[in-house]
Amino acid sequence: MRVILLKDVESLGKEGDVVEVRRGYARNYLFPRKLAVEANPANLSQLEAIRRRKVKMEEKELAEAETLKKRLDGLVLEFFKKAGETGKLYGSLTSKEIADRISQELQREFDKKYIDLEEPIKDLGEHKVKVNLGRGVTATLVVKVLPEEVK
Q1: How many alpha carbons lie under 13 Å from residue 139 in its C-beta half-sphere?
Q2: How far apart are CA 93 and CA 119, in angstroms?
Q3: Fold type of domain 68-150
C-alpha cells in the first residue's frame, strides 16, 4: 500500500515522502497515529500543491534575506559607552543593543537572534559583527564603540 508520510518516521522516510508499506502497518500504526495518509490521487495532488507553496515561500524568504544583506553589508553603527582609561568598557555592548540600533536604521523589527556575537563587546574601537539572516545568507557590519566623553 502506498502512503504519504505526514511526519518523519524513523526507518521509513521524511515528511512528504510517498512510501510503500504493508496494509496492516498503515492501518494499525501509521493512520491511527496520524503519521500518514493513503496515497490516493486527491491526496497526491494536495501534496504537490503544498510542495509548490513551500518552494515559493523559500524563494521569497531567500529574496528578502538577500535584500536585507545589501542594506546591512558595510553599515557602520556608532555606540557611545562609558569606558576606563585602558579602553575597557564599564559593562558591555550586547547583541540586543545592536539589534535595537539595526531596528532603528531599517525602520522595522529586527531580532537579536540573528546577530552572531560569540561574547559581548567589552572594548573601545571598531568591531566586525556577522549577522546571520538565514538560508545561508550572512551580512557583515561594523560596530564602532566610542568613549562617551567624545559626544
Answers
A1: 22
A2: 9
A3: Ribosomal Protein L9; domain 2 (3.10.430)
